[in-house]
């Protein structure tokens, strides 16, 4: 068994995972896999490169680690067990260092929050946030300089040859972090079975309520009436929606208990929304460690994920005989709902993405972003690397364009979408924008699909110019198979004999894709027809036919646009289209007329 964690050798999450393995029969010899981020750990598990992963969800001193909860939800991972782990923080440095020498203390941001009082007591030091505890210790060892120190567990000191300068530096001795061990939905190692059958259970939820008087207490009343105790309730404002609030909620018991099932059904009705993270073994106490048994040597670590020669396995619980099991509807009958920032995309929702074809200047994208946001767009598009048919045509502003797009996204609070054309662009783009777009011309660039699959970032995958629906689904399967479940499909028109329109917008792809896959389906009428005045009717038709959203090109002054000027909507056009769409109800599959096959 392999367990993925964020960081390198010496990280607290690695120690917790190893203790967990030692206490599980059949997992004693399991190894750990260091990854660059929580997201990369989730990707490793989703792709089958690791059997389990670990993320922190809260700390006794520093509070909730929202990224941990959010990631479990975003990747649709199955929580298996909670580990309540004592965080043993020591101040470590090169031999000969005194507290007065120290100018900089390297530590993980959470650890800095846990040790604030001690850090304030160091006379000459400032704190430097570091990606990971193991890295903090390694960097101090590499520098070999008495001006630097790290906060890390004692085992990291042994590993990197550092000495202890101060013991137990957390603000309180009872400093515990709760970690969640998780697995993918379609594979479970036999050693995990004990956590799925024995011991007390907990369930984690994210509850969304309105701020109206009594909303939260109605929800809590339902839980209390069912006799379920609440272990944790922490609120988070919903950015940009002051009338709503989100609550991270842990309750005792399992979703499968009958009283829980009934209470959750009622809760779903009383709340604005309810996201279920899952049920897991509560406090999977690591007996061997509690008894003080010395930890065995830590196995050699593979520092980063393997980048090549990974052949994804078909999921164990495969859906029928489908050659694209991960994209197939029956692998997730309820449908996928993506959460991108505050934007939900999936069944029951209709999201409008808008912005310029190309980012042409800071001013142009800022102005467009404000206009489309005010009119009702929820996400901002803008190409910085443009796949142009002619090499002499405007190729986009490149990274400068990405900078302007992201500034406009921050200014309006909208997540951003931009196209990546090559593998070299993937990592840098993934660090900046919220959604990576794969353009029609790259739909079958399989190495590019694999690379974006490994990022775990949401992807907008456009249908190729001459691609069949089957080929579009197979392209999505490439991304899913790498461990990235966050894929949206986009119909943008295909090549046919018809030349009156730029492409032929295949609106029949909407019901076909909805039937064959569980992934959200968007429509791009701008590229679909290529002519401004025919865009509105296609928007209406797409919404009525069941698309989960649209992507539209908008420009402050279309005749001057540097790309796709004939299809650019003015701000007024866009407002009119959104107003018209507001009068069309969001498609509801429950009310759909279904004819026999
Ligand atoms: C775009 O959306 O900017 C684009 C180039 O679209 P497509 O890949 O569908 O042609
Ligand atoms: Mn365009």
What's the total number of strands?
25
Number of helices: 20
General shape: globular
| Biggest β-sheet strands, sense, barrel | 8 strands, parallel, barrel
In whole angstroms, the N-to-C terminal distance is 44 Å
What is the structural class?
A: alpha/beta
Q: Give the names of the bound compounds.
A: phosphoenolpyruvate, manganese (II) ion
Percent in strands:
15-25%
Walk across the major sheet and give the strand order.
Answer: 18-19-20-21-22-23-24-25
Identify low-pLDDT runs.
Answer: 287-308
Q: How confident overall, as mean pLDDT? A: 92
Rounded Rg = 26 Å
Q: Which percent range fits the helix content?
A: 25-40%
What can you tell me about this protein's structure?
This protein has 597 residues and is of the alpha/beta class. 32% of the residues lie in helices and 22% in strands. It contains 20 helices and 25 strands. Strands 18-19-20-21-22-23-24-25 form an eight-stranded parallel barrel, surrounded by six helices. Helix 1 (12-22) links the parallel strand 1 (2-6) and strand 2. Helix 14 (423-432) runs parallel beside helix 15 (446-455) and helix 15 (446-455) packs across helix 16. The longest helix is centred in the middle third of the chain and has 14 residues, at 362-375. Residues 287-308 have low confidence and may be disordered. Phosphoenolpyruvate (PEP) is lined by residues 357, 383, 387, 419, 439-441, 462, 492, 527.
List the helices and strands and how they pair.
Layout: E1 2-6, H1 12-22, E2 31-35, H2 38-47, E3 52-59, E4 63-64, H3 66-74, E5 78-86, E6 90-93, E7 104-107, H4 109-114, H5 116-121, E8 126-129, H6 133-143, E9 148-152, H7 154-160, E10 163-166, E11 176-183, H8 193-197, E12 201-210, H9 215-225, E13 230-237, E14 244-252, H10 258-270, E15 273-281, H11 287-290, E16 338-340, E17 343-345, E18 351-355, H12 362-375, E19 379-381, H13 399-412, E20 416-419, H14 423-432, E21 435-438, H15 446-455, E22 459-462, H16 469-481, E23 487-491, H17 509-516, E24 521-523, H18 525-529, H19 535-545, E25 549-553, H20 571-582
Parallel strand pairs: 1-2, 1-3, 7-8, 7-9, 18-19, 18-25, 19-20, 20-21, 21-22, 22-23, 23-24, 24-25
Antiparallel strand pairs: 3-4, 3-11, 5-11, 6-9, 6-10, 12-14, 12-15, 13-14, 16-17
The chain binds phosphoenolpyruvate and manganese (II) ion.
